[in-house]
Amino acid sequence: MAQDTPDRNALPQAAAAAASGALAASPGALVALLCLTEVLGMLGSSSFSALLPEFQREWGLNNTEAGWISGIFFAGYVAAVPLLVGSTDRVDPRRIYLLSFVIAGAASLGYALFAEGFWSALALRALAGAGLAGGYMPGLKLLTDRVSGPRQGRYIAFYTGGFSLGTALSFAFTGEAAAWLGWRGAFAAAAAGAALGFALVLLLVRRARAEELAREAASRSTLDFRPVLANGAAMGFILGYSGHTWELFALRSWLVAFLVQAARFAGDSADIAKASWLTTAIVLISTAASIYGAELATRSDRRRVIGRIMLLSAAMAVATGLSAGAPVALVAALSLAYHMVVMGDSAALTGGAVAAASPGQRGATLAVHSILGFGSGFLGPLAVGLVLDLAGGEGSRLAWVLAFLTMGAGSAAAFAAIRRL
């Protein structure tokens, strides 16, 4: 009869699970859900870059001002990272992840309602960057807290691939929504996507159990990153990631504008919507390169694999910049190849930083990873805008060659950091 006696704790535990919206499914289902909500939260992430030529025309922005607005998104990200990502060693990352949708939604809706020029766009894009800070790395921390074992590296690659998917769909989503609803309607629709992501996480992802929170971090201040800076293995990957993000975010921020101008050089029609779709395809296809690079790095010498990708990336930057004026099909093909190579070491660098993190310092390591990485992501687009203005503007082929050399400098610097550390 004893075995038939109900467990007194069973009903309360079941009720708690139901109340928290526990996702009673496989780790793969959790990864899929996080990738989906990551994409929903990022629908407004590339909206300014997708419509950059239109904003330059409507508001009279020069390339440097456009570079500031593109880059300030990542500056907002960096400013919010110490608190939002650093706190995930003490607070359930699910709470931070939910907050990210609120911030991202408010930024997109605010842009739709109030953006009128350089300064208002600058402030609202900085807020949008803070929303991403609460989503990307806290989402990864949420994943790695709940999923471990030999497949964790693969799941990390899928999740970081979701970041590229979100970026890609943001380009296409914005271009199409703007064609139907205008640019204000496109930003409002992105806010609706963030609201949907919030609802899915709230209902389907369970709260963390107390024992799942990192006990080792109990004595560490949220903003004390000294143990991470002293971890040479992790810092090698973090500095490599910084050079990678300089190049990647500069390329993504200016790719639509480059494709539009390349079409003009070739005498073809310069359509922003077509360029946005082409950029979407380029970013989507390149996601596979990130996953493949992570798998290759796991099975081989991670540092050597990353180093070779970085050298090839710098070479592809030169080739793509020199293609300005060539037939549009060739420019698009080189842009795709370049973006794929840049993405080849993305997940491998993040996976390396996670693997090298000390116990109880994973959240702090990801915070430093984000601060330095996305700090470079802020500077890259701005540097390209400055180079374009100083070299004669977007109508100069030489200016675009120098702009792509500026992008490729990120991989060159990252290669030096990886080799040294």
Short description:
The chain contains 17 helices and no strands.
Ordered list of secondary-structure elements with their pairings:
Blueprint: H1 10-19, H2 27-41, H3 47-50, H4 52-59, H5 63-84, H6 93-114, H7 118-133, H8 136-146, H9 152-204, H10 226-229, H11 232-265, H12 272-299, H13 302-322, H14 328-343, H15 346-356, H16 362-390, H17 397-420
Helix pairs in contact: 2-8, 2-9, 5-7, 5-16, 6-7, 6-8, 6-9, 8-9, 9-12, 9-15, 11-12, 11-14, 11-15, 11-16, 11-17, 12-13, 12-14, 12-15, 13-14, 13-17, 16-17
Description:
With 421 residues, this protein is mainly α. The chain has one domain (26-207, 223-420): Growth Hormone, Chain: A. It has 17 helices and no strands. It has helices spanning 10-19, 27-41, 47-50, 52-59, 63-84, 93-114, 118-133, 136-146, 152-204, 226-229, 232-265, 272-299, 302-322, 328-343, 346-356, 362-390, 397-420. Helix 9 packs across helix 12. The radius of gyration is 22 Å and the shape is globular. The termini are far apart. Mean pLDDT is 85; it is low at 1-22.
Features of this protein?
Growth Hormone, Chain: A; globular; 78% helix; 421 residues
N- to C-terminal separation?
64 Å
Domains, number: 1
User: What is the β-strand count?
Assistant: 0
Based on CA inertia axes, which overall geometry fits? globular
Q: What structural class do helix, strand and pairing data support?
A: mainly alpha
Gyration radius from CA atoms, angstroms:
22 Å
| Number of DSSP helical runs | 17
What name does CATH use for the topology? Growth Hormone, Chain: A
Instruction: Bin the strand percentage.
Output: under 5%
Question: The biggest beta sheet, please?
Answer: none
Tell me the CATH superfamily: MFS general substrate transporter like domains
Q: Any idea what the CATH architecture is? A: Up-down Bundle
- CATH class assignment: Mainly Alpha
Mean pLDDT over all positions: 85
Order of helices and strands: HHHHHHHHHHHHHHHHH
